[in-house]
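Thread title: Can someone regenerate the structure for this chain?

I was given the following input by a collaborator and told the matching structure tokens would be attached. They weren't. Posting the sequence so someone can regenerate them.
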Amino acid sequence: MNPPISNAVAAAPLVPPSPMAELWRDFRLNRGAVAGLVLVITFLLLAILAGVISPHSPIEQYRDAILVPPAWEDGGSTKFLLGTDAVGRDMLSRLIHGTRLSLAIGLVSVGLSLSLGILLGLLAAWRGGKTDTAVMRMMDVLLALPSLLLAVAVIAILGPGLANAMYAIAIVMLPAFVRLTRATALGELQKDYVIASRIAGAGPLRLMCSTVLPNCVAPLIVQATLGFSTAILDAAALGFLGLGAQPPTPEWGSMLSGALEFIQSAWWVVSLPGFAILLAVLAFNLMGDGLRDALDPKLKR
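Best answer:
Regenerated them for you:
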């Protein structure tokens, strides 16, 4: 016979899972989201280890190896696994270093837009009245302009360059963060725990930053994740137009721009940067969808 279970063990309460464990449990139910997470981790490793794993310098020119096809095609070389471009630069090395640049653009642009969006959104929700109206009408003006046109207008004022492209992309994404923060904060301000904190004497800064803001984080995380894909696309578009990263910087959009004339004679110089943009945008979108399903109680299965 099995030994009797002691009363202490039988009466032991079940320990609830930690928030991170619960998040991962819900997140991994979405196979597409897990695939997106794997791709994002791969891109992060490529960006961090770009200087170690890239076989050549991204700007070094091999004049005796111009438009060499990938290694698996006739005329290819194992020295250049993905071939070379029109001036003899290694495509694999440029794609790897372009990963670092694209992720840096996304991180800086989303970070700037998220920080300013939270500040303006909380200010509009707390102050209300004329402040709320002024902030939201300004966001409506930004939303009324096509995103690429607005980014081009900002760069026309600031001048072309990688840093100015980041500022332009941050301005383009700003309305989404402001509107989301304001809407979430307005919903939280009506709840009992916020009213109790206000009665207890919490000041405006502590009330908004310590009480309201932590409960607005979940949708902002999802929006920031999806904003990465938008930033990568906008950066590639600006680079393609010659307004973003300038040659010889290995940025995917500028690589596409310089390869258009070889679209029929050397497919790899056009297709490979485009495929890298596709994978990066798809990875962040899939991961963002998975985070949305995992963080929103209404969408949990």
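Residues 56 and 205 are 52 Å apart (CA to CA).
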